[in-house]
Design brief:
This protein is α/β, with parallel strands linked by helices. It has a nine-stranded mixed beta sheet, with helices on both faces. A three-stranded parallel beta sheet has the order 22-23-24. Helix 18 (516-529) links the parallel strand 23 (502-509) and strand 24 (536-538). Helix 13 (411-422) runs parallel beside helix 15 and helix 15 (445-455) packs across helix 17. It binds iron/sulfur cluster.
């Protein structure tokens, strides 16, 4: 067990609240009135409602935001996976003084519940026992509804990936329809997209100061307002309206590409008109290194809340001893949600902060000596910076069609850090389990050498996604020759190190623009290598992504028509080309 204090609900008095109303950091955030009483809290300031179980680990957004708010003087409670037939579960800790934050959890609830062929999933890694069924479809809408029933007129803020990706008009694969902003459907007061620490803090401060919840000064927010209230001289991007997108599928592509730029530039406001109203999107303002360090220094137990009485939560077991080194990914892959969620700018923690976390893991009584991962969205982008001005950048990716000369990352600094983590007393192994960008890795053979020798636990995850260059271009991925160069080098370095290790390639079938011939090409390539890939994902257009716009509009980002396998039958056919002699077993 981790090192728990005698009273597992006792506050940690070592955490200062920086001159704000003093609130001690609890050992875990409360989920019941009894815990509030033990903390001496009469009422909550903020209630967080989540579709995931409450795991007190920095990889879980609810724990992260909850503790961030407490650090800044707010009393926060969590209702995790409430029953949704009535508001009863939300009433347990009483009406919060300021607001409720609602999230579907770490995944969009429709993605969590259905496979690429719209079949119901039976497992859920974010739920005790790993069983599906603990959260509703379209969880943000349902939870916002029961919050309204429980606490009429309480301000509601949506956050998390489901809200983030669905912040403007978007394509919904599961109903094969366009849907308007989730903010309107949920009838919530504001939505925070991306990583919401700054936004939720600004919202809480505004309410505490008697101001309206939403406003142009809340970073990374979407709310219904007036463009006339934006700061004078502010840059404003006019996105295609909901009605424009309904009338012309190509406008979905225009809106998506503009959103990618909006997130990346982080300087402008965006306005999206819908049904006579204006949805205002404020620029995001990601945390800086110092703030990330402060956030990750908070004493997370890294365990499910005691409420679960030791029941296993698969996701918690998977990430318990992993370290998140940075946020953001310069890749801008067209199918990936990161481009419109965290964005392309990399925000890294300092080496000292990462080492401190490693030391605290080594002291954990459950720790057996292995750090399962030091990484982020892409493991080898830690410390990456743009040496130019990202706000003026017009590219959609820092790595495609080639690595931008302004994208600066020092792979040996990262290797140096990994070695330092490994040298911490009590740590025997450090693994890099997050995927790496192979094109970036090829820039320095010493990185691959060190990775192979010291940080690959037998298998290295890579996401070439395909080998047909036409498809790779649409994905914004490096060409097949780059992947082959990496494989050659990887194998050579493994042989030199006397290690038998493997690359696990992640592949996507039926991507927009991909034809049966492209799938044959991939199947033949795999056969030549003698590979039977296990990680094959049939393409799913995730809301808000450029690939979803390709799928819906049948065009590439430049507006050129592309073939799209749209029916499940056509998608399955393509998928089976890869599965070869195993038809009838669609996976993932
Ligand atoms: S200039 Fe280059 S490195 Fe900088 S943001 Fe643009 S693509 Fe990325």
């Amino acid at each position: 067990m981790p090192s728990l204090p005698k009273n597992p609900l006792a506050p940690d008095r070592s955490v200062a609240s920086h001159g704000r109303p003093a609130v001690d950091m609890p050992h875990v955030l409360p989920m019941s009135r009894r815990e509030m009483d033990r903390l001496g809290w009469q009422e909550l300031d903020v209630l967080l409602v989540s579709g995931d179980a409450y795991v007190d680990h920095p990889s879980f957004g609810t724990a992260l935001l909850g503790r961030w708010l407490v650090l800044h003087g707010y009393r926060v409670g969590i209702v995790a996976q409430p029953r949704w037939a009535s508001p009863q579960d939300l009433l347990a800790m009483g009406r919060p003084r300021l607001m409720a934050g609602v999230t579907a959890g770490a995944l969009d609830s429709m993605l969590a519940h259905y496979t690429a062929f719209r079949k119901k999933r039976h497992d859920d890694a974010y739920t005790p026992g790993g069983r599906a069924g603990a959260r509703p479809n379209r969880a943000c809408l349902v939870y916002a509804g029961i919050v309204k029933q429980a606490f009429p007129r309480l301000p509601i803020v949506l956050g998390g990936i489901e809200a983030s990706l669905r912040r403007i008009t978007h394509y919904d694969f599961w109903t094969d329809k366009l849907r308007r902003s989730i903010l309107l459907d949920a009838k919530a007061d504001m939505l925070l997209y991306g990583m919401a620490e700054r936004g939720i803090l600004a919202a809480a401060q505004r309410l505490r100061d008697g101001l309206a919840l939403a406003g142009p000064s809340v970073p990374g927010a979407a709310y219904i307002g007036s463009p006339d209230d934006l700061p004078p001289g502010a840059e404003v991007i006019e996105l295609p309206s909901h009605e424009d997108i309904l009338a012309d599928p190509r406008k979905l592509m225009a809106a998506t590409l503009a959103m990618e730029q909006h997130v990346h530039h982080a300087t402008a406001y965006a306005v999206h008109r819908v049904e006579g109203r204006s949805l205002i999107l404020t620029p995001p303002r990601p945390l800086a290194t110092r703030e990330l360090d402060q956030l990750y220094a908070l004493r997370f137990t890294r365990e499910p809340h005691p409420f679960y009485e030791g029941r296993k939560i698969p996701a918690a077991d998977m990430i318990r001893f992993s370290i998140n080194s940075h946020r953001g990914c310069g890749g801008g892959c067209s199918f990936c949600t990161l481009a419109v969620h965290q964005g392309r700018r990399i925000r890294s923690r300092s080496p000292a902060s990462i080492l401190k976390e490693a030391e605290s893991l080594a002291r954990n009584r459950r720790f057996t000596g292995s750090i399962s991962d030091v990484g982020g969205p892409t493991a080898n982008m830690w410390g990456g910076v743009c040496s130019d001005d990202p706000a003026r950048c017009r590219r959609a990716s820092c790595l495609f069609p080639g690595i931008c000369p302004h994208f600066v990352v020092d792979p040996m600094r990262l290797i140096g850090l990994l070695h330092k983590v490994r040298a911490v007393k009590g740590i025997k192994h450090v693994r890099v389990a997050s995927g790496i960008r192979h094109d970036l890795a090829l820039k320095d053979v010493r990185y691959i050498r060190a990775l192979v020798r010291d940080f690959v636990g037998g298998q290295l995850k890579l996401a070439p996604e395909h080998v047909a260059d036409q498809v790779l271009r649409l994905m914004r991925k490096p060409g097949s020759k780059v992947f082959e160069r990496f494989l050659d080098l990887f194998e050579k370095e493994c042989a030199a190190a006397g290690k038998q290790q493997f690359v696990v390639p992640y592949l996507i079938s039926a991507f927009p623009g991909c034809t049966p011939q492209h799938m044959q090409q991939l199947a033949q390539w795999l056969a030549r290598r003698g590979w039977r890939p296990e990680q094959v994902q049939c393409f799913m257009p995730l809301p808000g992504t450029t690939a979803a716009a390709m799928y819906y509009a049948g065009i590439d980002p430049a507006g050129k028509p592309i073939p799209v396998a749209r029916t499940d039958a056509d998608r399955l056919k393509m998928h089976h080309i890869l599965l070869g002699d195993r038809p009838g077993r669609p996976r993932r």
